[in-house]
Design brief:
heterotetramer; A alpha/beta (310); B alpha/beta (315); C mainly alpha (324); D mainly alpha (274); B: alpha/beta; 8-stranded mixed beta sheet; 4-stranded antiparallel beta sheet; C: 324 residues; mainly alpha; 79% helix
Amino acid sequence: MESLIEFRNIDVKFRLGKLTIHALKGINLELRRGEVLGLVGESGSGKSVLIHSVFRTLPDDAVLSGEIIYKGVNLLSMDERKAMKLIGKNFSLVPQGFGSLNPVLKSWFQIMERPMEHFGLKKAEAFLVSKELLKKLFLEDPEKIVHAYRHQLSGGMLQRILVAMGISGKTEAIFFDEPTKGLDTITKEKLLELLRFARSMTESMFVVSHDLEFIERIADRIAVIHRGEIVEISEAKEFFENPKHPYSRMLIDSAPSKGLKKCFDKIDFNSEGCSYYLICQRAREICKRNRPSWIKLESGGLRCLVDIWK
Amino acid sequence: MSSEERILIGCELSKEFRTRKRIIRALQRASVEIRKGERVALVGESGSGKTTLAKILAYILKPSEGRLVFRGKNLAEMDKRELRIFRTKVQYVPQYSDLALDPLWHIYDSIAEPLRIHGMVESRQEELERILEIADLLNLSIDHLRRKPRDLSGGELQRAVIARAIILKPEVLIADEPTSMLDPVTQSRIIWAIMNAREKIGFSTILITHELSIAKAISERLYVMFGGRIVEFGFTEDIFTEPLHPYTSSLIERDVYLLMNEEKIAEGGVFESPGCEFRFRCRFAEEKCKTPPPEIRMGKKRTVRCWLYGEPDRV
Amino acid sequence: MMRLLKSFLKYFSLILIIVTLNFMLPRVMPGDPMVFIFGEEIYGIAVNNPELFAQFVEKYGLNLPLIEQYRIHIINFFTGDWGYSFSFGRPVFEIIAERLPFTLLLTFPATLMSLAIGIAIGLRIGWRPNRISSRITTSICLLIHSVPSYWLSMVFLLVFSLWLRFVPVGGAPRPDSTLIEAISHLILPFSVLLLFNTAYIAMIVRGLTVEVSEEEFIATAISKGLKHWKFSIRHLLRPSLPPLIFLTAIELGFTLSGALLVEIVFNWPGIGYTMLQAVVERDYPLIHATFTIVAVAVITANAIGDLLTGFLDPRVRNNGDIEN
Amino acid sequence: MGTSRTEILGFLLLSSVFLMLIFSFLPEEYFGKKSQSPYLPPSPSNPLGTNDIGEDVLKNLLIGSRASLTIGILSALVATGIGTLIGVISGFFGGRIDEFCRSLTDLFLVIPGLPMMIVLAAYLGPSYFNVILVIGLLWWPATARIVRARAVQIANSAFVEGLIAIGAGRGYIVIKHILPNVYGVALSRFVLTVPSAIILEAGLSFIGLGDPRNPSWGTALHFALTRGALLHGAWWTFIPPGLCIAITSLAFLLIGFGIEKRYRESVKSMERSL
């Protein structure tokens, strides 16, 4: 599968008062055409920052370097207006939570704002399309809800409107930012249904989440990120059956349904060796002293010392 | 296992909130009891009244009806002095939020504050020892204690909040969804911190969560709540091996059937018509369910509130 | 509808309070209330010929109990009898009616234009505050913001009319003067007011824009790749309109006072100039009248602001049920 | 959080103004002599020339700083003091008290500043004390509104709820937690109110209702206008007072915005928003 978007050593730094935070340390990742890529990591691992760097919603004082290649063009080197026009036309972002809707615009307008801008849809036409979309997303009577404002929506309605925002109009890729944050189990099930429907409306999807159980049921390929670095990429099935990187295994074990085993707090971020030395089954003496580098495997890749895998 | 002595009992607790247009019955006649050193969990969707019940048990919220009894004494009749003692014995950890600790205070002072309010400590030295002891239990380092809330990560902040709650060595800790907004790794760190502290200090815990698997992992007894009512309660293994109430079984099997008619019931625990609130989403719903189901005792310390289980015998 | 009635009552009661203030002040302040009601010189003359004095006491019911006087006062206010200005030798209402158009002619267009320009500038300097151009514009607005308006008028007068002789030294155009002459009189005070209000509104809009751009829905809006002007209006301006209207209505008291003082410098015969004359002559009825007019203007502005906010902010209009 | 450039510039300007205040207490002989001829242009003996009655402009300017600064600062203090008090009370206690405070705030917000002061000054006669009192009484609603918003945010926060659970009294919570958290907002409001107070007082003196015994920068402008300094082209009599007002206001505005920015930063946590 040829790649739709390619991130080449994306590096992001923020300034917080005197100290600077190195949010992303050289990310290399590609979103292939026709796949669902899941990016998984703890909160504070910088996973949402990657989405913000695509849509250029990073704060003013952020320093972004590296390349985002789409159709052979580096989006970061293009002039801002042209790049945003291209991004708006081909990609869509599904945010999370009530705060991500404009409080003074009606729901149908916010759903159809993107297609109206890029595909020349007229207002009347767009209004009908939005009703159609919401019906497809299991909403019994969209008549009322299309006119609702943000403060009049319930949890369930909000979710459908956010997903509708992502799938309205043709897109090559939909980006989901922490879709399951703060949802209880039942609403998470409903979201799964919505995402499966969204899958049929676009080519590829990029889902960022900290919820491994959710990602397992939606993603084809999984990338694990920890403290701004990608530690493992692999096919979904293979990832959950035998995760290679110790951090991935820890993430899988810490899922609540696995009975809350106590297996963390032993990651010490030493600079010269591999930080995961203490929690890695395959750890050997050499891991203590030299930095792991990225190894390409057929199903993805791993940040580890080469000779262990020979 | 927990000894027989019952410390905190809530009987027939209900709570109503009046807004201009309607009355929200957030909690309807819920009865709860906590034994010394016992691990209890309260499970339910958002809007099922579990947070309201938690706040009433911690006496932050006064119930519209019903009595709350602590060690045989009704809270409503307690005078100022007795209430202060209750405050040291029963502690409450609020839901995760950014303003969980005073942004201007250092973590050390925020944790030490309860000691200073109740004058539990004679010297600065003793205060320091107790705080270091608690911080070690929740693996918070000296460096964390010196920082301000905005310099801590989500997990560290929540652990600091828990440290503040258990510094007074309470008998009951009520934790209201301490991990709902956090990722699994941080979540398990916090739950482990609570359980670790529990072993050392010996307080009984009431954990409020919508995460069924967490409830299963760390509780002996379980209350399942829906629509402001306790629909089922009993020992955790019994409930997980043989769930009685249709809602509990669909929760455990992640039953997709629940998705369909969600729009019918009004949002936010508001149920105009009396009767079983679950009837809109229940497979077995029939005419009878329009009248409120009684609480039926199904064996030792095991009850369910559903017409499926025959006529109401004396509870 | 209920909301409209409630806000109308609120603002009507505010006007009543202002009128009561006017009624109470002369009677509460130390000294003989008559002095304050008639003005100092007239009080001197009236004292020594009693029947003129009695005639006035009779007319304004000053010998009646307080409640009666209050009732008469209220009726007089709403029927347009605002007392008699001795320094002008004419009823107060007539003077105000004659002078108010001049002030409106000056302040109304200035405020409207400065609203438009101020919002445009405010959006620009608020959206990317760290750009060099934004920093410079902000400091210019800040500078104008901190300078007294009447002093700026004196400087303008000095430079443009005294030194450069572009414009006559203040005063209003005579009714028969040509359009160019009229404009030449109007241009200086108008530009001072315009400059002043624009800087003021630009700073308010800048603050609101900086605040709104930290909201989460801005990231969603950016991701849609809208044209910049559409994005600014729909996602920066629209959400901050309610607070903007509220703040502008509140600050009107301050900007109006500035406008009055500008009139004084340019001898522009508006309410401000009248107020100065009233103060100089210690003509209390006229002082009260000018204060009431300005207060009523601010109250009306707030009422309109309230109405607009209700219309623009859905959260206020129907916070419960959804209707199209 | 280091003090930003704006604040440093603000402090620089402010120190220059306070320098003027100190110099105003210098003994007589340091100033230019009082001369018979009015409107002398700036000369070595009178660095800023003389005004319409031959007084040295620089001397008046320095003395003027006393009235303008003290009135500006004191009335801003009164205004923010009342505003913070009412803001905290209505924010923390809520319910009917909140309702009453809010209607009171709405009422005072609507009364226009300068005209009100003119009416009162016309009655009470121009006096130093009245001006401070009146500005204080008319300017507290702006502070009350902002302080109330912050107090409500703190009062409903999780940690105050936790405090109630621990058994902390209401008074304790207000003093130890509400006030310190509201202090940042109140301080920036105070510093931002001073310029409005100075300009308002100058306006009052400009109309001729200033306190003659304590001439402020506004009084100098008043005489410049009424005694025809403008027509004489004697710019040195009215340009300097205006500049002084501008510099002082600018100083306070810069410092105020600096504090507000620092306060907003200290609350937001960057790390967790990653």
